[in-house]
Amino acid sequence: ADFLSVPPNLNLGGIEGLSYGKGHLVVVQNGIKPQRVMRLQLNDTGDTITNTAPLAVALESFDYPSHGEVVGDDFYFYASSYWNRDPTAGEAVTVLRTDIAGGRDIVPPDVRRFMEDMERDGRVAPLTPKPVEEDANGS
Q1: Three-state secondary structure along 32-80?
Q2: Quick count: other Cβ atoms within 10 Å of Cβ 76?
């Protein structure tokens, strides 16, 4: 059987959602801390992860983020789920959108400093700013 080659320092624990788009895997990880959405860039044959970047990390709106879907250049995902909620109570879940190419704008400052240190040390690719946190009406 063929397996996906993964960098040795990439934590793949706690993956709740997995999507594919634009030559990348996008994973939602809610079973680890910090909860996060990560972009995993694949090589041309799709059998090796060549680079990783956070798209959203430890957002205030995160409450067990879950599945999502790639639509064009964006990834829409559930920032909150029903893990800690009663689905029959009519509580709304939060849906967020981020550009697959970046995530810097929705990464908290302390995590941003950590990622900048990682970028400086060559452990991750630089992020491109562009993601947007939307309200429940999608605007």
Answers
A1: CCCCEEEEEEECCCCCEEEEEEEEEECCCCCECCCCEEEECCEEEEECE
A2: 16
What amino acid occupies position 16?
A: E
Kindly report the backbone phi and psi dihedral angles of residue 116, in degrees, each rounded to the nearest multiple of 5, phi listed first.
Answer: -65, -40
Cα end-to-end distance, the chain, whole Å:
45
Among 61, 65, 70, residue whose Cα is nearest residue 22: 70
Lowest mean pLDDT among 5-9, 52-56, 58-62, 124-128: 124-128
pLDDT averaged over every residue in the chain = 79
Rounded distance between C-alpha atoms, residue 139 and residue 14, angstroms: 30
> Per-residue pLDDT for 115 more than 70?
no
Q: Is the pLDDT of residue 131 over 50?
A: no
pTM of the model: 0.70
**Residue 22: strand, helix, or coil:** coil
d(CA 64, CA 123): 27
User: What's the order of all strands across the beta sheet hosting 68-71?
Assistant: 68-71, 74-78, 95-99
